[in-house]
Each structure stands twice: as C-alpha cells, then as structure tokens.
Amino acid sequence: MTTTQLLQKSIDYIEENLKSELSLSELAEISGFSIYHFCRIFSSYVGMPVSAFITKRRLYHGIHEIQNGGKIVDIALLYGFDTYAGFFKAFKREFGCSPSKFLKLNTAKRPIAVNLIREAKIMLTQREIKQILSNWNLDSNLEIEDTFVVGTVKSDNTWLINGKYILKTGKNISGLKTHMAISKELEKSGVLAATPIRTIKDEDFVIENDRYFCLTNAIKGKFLTLEERYAGNRIGTGKKYGEAIGNLHKILQKQDKNLEVHDSNLLKTVLGWALPQTKITMEQWECPLPDEFYEDFTKNFSKLYNELPRHIIHRDPNPSNIIFHNGEVSGFIDFEISERNVRIFDPCYCATGILAEATTIADRFEKWDEILKGIITGYDNICKLTEAEKLAIPYVIYSIQMIFIAWLNGKEELKNLAMQNRKMLIWIWESKDKCFHDL
C-alpha cells in the first residue's frame, strides 16, 4: 500500500470514532508507522497535526448536530471536550465566532469524510520523477531541483529539470490544454512561453494515475522577490508589470475568437456568490465592512460593468507567474485558468497579488499605492484605458478580494492567507482615497 493509502486507514478510523478517546499509538499502529514517523507523515500529507485534525473534525460534526437540535453542552461532552468552555474556545479559534453566532450566519452542512487519496498533495521521490521523465528523450544524467512559488515556499507540483525544463503535474487536464494553446500562440508572436516538449510517443503530456505530467521549456529568468518588488522605484517596477500585461493582452485579444476558454461574468460571480459569502465571513470573523461598502459596490459596479472591454485574459497574473530577466519581464507562466473576462481584471489582480504576498515587508500597505499606480499607468501605456475602466478599477479590486475571501472560506490550511485577505479588503476600502485618487 502507498503512504497515502496507509494514512487513509487512520483517517477513516478517526472519522468513525470521533466520540471515543483516540490515541496516537493506536492511530500509528493502524497505519503501520512508529508514533514519531506517523506524526511527521500525517502533518506533511494532511497539512496539520493529528490532534488539530481530530479537533477540527469533532467541531464540524458537533456544530452540525447542534443545528439539528442537539443540546450544545451535551454535544461538547459527547465529542470529547471536558467542558463547554473548552468547546467554545476551540470553536472560536476555528470559526472566528461563537457557535450560536455561526449558526445565525451559516447553515452547518453534514461533514463530508476526508478522502486523502483524492485531496492529498502529490509527494514524489527523485526515483519516481526519473521514471516519469523516461517518457521524454532526455539525457540519462538528470538533475532534478525544487521550484518555489513565493519566496521560500516550495512548489509541490513543479520541478526544474537539468536547469532548462519544468516538469509539472496536476489533474486539471482541460486547464493544461488551455495553457498549451495560449503558450503556443504566444511563442508564434515572439513571446517567451512555457510550451510543451513532445514525448517519445510524440504527445504533449502523459497521464499516470489520473494525473497529467507535462514537460515544458523553462522561461529564462525568475520572478521578482518580495523585496525587489518594493525596493527603489516602485512606480517604475509597477510600470514594467503593467506594460507586460498590456503587451500580453494585445496578443490575447487577437486570438479571442480562435481559442476556446470559459466565458466568465465577473459581476454575476461577485453578486451571486462572492459578495454574500464575504459579508457572512467578515461578520463571522468580527471584522465586518459597513453596509455602505456593499451598497456602493452593487450600485456603481453594476452601472459600469457592461461598458468594460472583454477578451481572453491570463486570470492568474500573480507576481510569481511573471518572469523577469535582466530587469525586464521575459515571459508569463501558468495559463491553466485563463478565461474571457473584463481585461482590467489582470492588472488589478497583479497589484493585489503583490500586496498579498508581501507579508514580511514593512509598511507594505503604505507603499502599495505606488505599485498600483505604476501597474495601471504601464497598462494604460499599451492598452488605452476607457473612462469606464478607470472608474471601475476600485470595484474590480474589491471583486478580486471578495472572490478570494469567499474561496478561502473553510480552507484550514490557508487560514493565515484568509486572514491577510480580509485585512487587505478592509484597508483598501478605508484607504480608497489614497489608493485610487491619482489613477
């Protein structure tokens, strides 16, 4: 059995025995590991310690039973909490509010059992990677290196091969095909892009165990570090991002009718899902925005939306997907979620991505308006913004934040990121005059 399958046995046992006392020794024995090794492997694969996972599952089941009529004190004791106070503290740490407030704002859904085989991050050994790479005509002496997504955060689905290729894996085959189609068009237009290297069977990628593996050329250069984005002339750095996105858009606009992508309606997505969920989430975590925010957004963005130019966009131009070489943008990566949407989404997304990633930068909020101004100015230099687009910039940025806040809701492993994005939305709204007055 694989490590994932062995861990799934312990997870299934936990789910079936949440109302009983659970010990590390019995869970480790079920999986066939020593206690020390079990704890390390579990945390690595699941994303949290064993004890935290058990507590989380008990809370989710407990609140569902309370909603269905169970007495809160009885449920707390039933799921292993010594006192109601202990249950209350654990619940507030997990959900940001009391059980009663949570149930006023949300419907507690029946918890779905965790399927680690479906959800776990892929963990490949060097030997397994080399076996996968045998599908390509490469040198026998393979050098395999980790890649990084933000600073020192290691990617779990890409590897640098021999210093000039990227091996990527995932399950979104439709997204991969979108990426390949766009990358090939960019290459035809003289833009560096991560185009696929054909396999020995003359295919763009291989599929193993329901996952694709694709080898592409690596774009020369690297993404700017957090410090490089904020150092020196921030407006000038922002302009480079904005102009690069503008040049990318000129190519994508020409291909708008030739490439099949999802057609997205940003306004409908926000009003129908992201805004209501954000309102609940902000209230739940005791950082509510005033009604004025939601009323202003709904009224004014609804008026502007149909005037905004649309075509295929990158959709995920966060700063880690924009590569620099010798101080200039050399290319873009990761077009898996590209779609047809309002074009101003991309430069706004790049700007919010820079702010979101800069958690270690002192005064990151106070300095961000210069980066935003540079990005918008640079984009306008290449793709002349309409008056409606200029007026819509704040609302597109609010949209991006609300979509992210709604998407992050309930994702335990991204709790810190969720907190950062709630903080960002509040600050951007409260500092709107500083951020948007000179765009």
Keywords:
Arc Repressor Mutant, subunit A; 11 strands; Aminoglycoside 3'-phosphotransferase, Chain: A, domain 2; 3-stranded mixed beta sheet; 5-stranded antiparallel beta sheet; 439 residues; globular; Phosphorylase Kinase, domain 1
How would you sum up this structure, described in words?
The longest helix is centred in the last third of the chain and has 22 residues, at 387-408. It is built from 19 helices and eleven strands. With 439 residues, it is of the alpha+beta class. Helix 15 (345-357) crosses helix 17. A five-stranded antiparallel sheet has the order 1-2-3-6-5. A three-stranded mixed sheet has the order 4-10-9. The model has no long low-confidence stretch (mean pLDDT 94). The chain has three domains: 3-119, Homeodomain-like (Arc Repressor Mutant, subunit A), CATH 1.10.10; 126-217, Phosphorylase Kinase, domain 1 (2-Layer Sandwich), CATH 3.30.200.20; 226-436, Aminoglycoside phosphotransferase (APH), C-terminal lobe (Aminoglycoside 3'-phosphotransferase, Chain: A, domain 2). The protein is 55% helix and 12% strand.
Topology:
Layout: H1 3-16, H2 24-31, H3 35-46, H4 50-67, H5 72-78, H6 84-95, H7 99-105, H8 116-119, H9 126-133, E1 144-150, E2 153-161, E3 165-170, H10 173-188, E4 192-193, E5 206-208, E6 211-217, H11 226-230, H12 234-254, E7 262-263, H13 266-284, H14 291-304, E8 310-313, E9 322-325, E10 328-332, E11 339-342, H15 345-357, H16 364-382, H17 387-408, H18 415-430, H19 432-436
Parallel strand pairs: 4-10, 7-11
Antiparallel strand pairs: 1-2, 2-3, 3-6, 5-6, 8-11, 9-10
Helix pairs in contact: 1-2, 2-3, 12-15, 12-16, 13-14, 13-17, 14-17, 15-16, 15-17, 17-18
